[in-house]
Amino acid sequence: MQYSILPMLPDHWxxxxxxxxxxxxxxxxxxxxxxDWEKWDDGHREDCRLVAVETSxxxxxxxxxxxxxxxxxxxxxxxxxVSLYVRSSARGRGVGTALLQTLIREAETxxxxxxxxxxxxENAASISLHKAxxxxxxGVRQRIGALRGVWRDVLLLERRSPTVS
Length: 165
Prior knowledge:
Blueprint: E1 3-7, H1 16-25, H2 37-42, E2 49-54, E3 57-69, E4 79-86, H3 95-109, E5 114-119, H4 124-132, E6 136-147, E7 150-160
Parallel strand pairs: 4-5
Antiparallel strand pairs: 1-2, 2-3, 3-4, 5-7, 6-7
């Protein structure tokens, strides 16, 4: 499968077809329902938004990655939280790695020095992907939130830029 990494445009929000199964799985996010474009757009940085699309059919979104600010205070301007989702049929083909590596480069270009990811411990594939891209475990946030009535832990990972400080 040939694919390209492109900036995410509003038309790509058809990528909800990728996000919705992650919500349904119960192991990808605390979200309970799919946000509309406006809500999603409001919660994410305007830069550092990517999609992986099939080269032969650029309407076929295989995955997406985006950053959201960790806080609104100026002193946290160099930190962002990673969101990354890959269509189940595209997993194991390097799409997630390509998205995350490109997102890291774009984040550094934007002056971001710390990327963080909060991942459910059961999501072994996502943890492995982040560690392969030089994220390190910071710790476990125990019982940080309840999902469908069950308290969940979240593994916190971070990556510090070797070039942005």
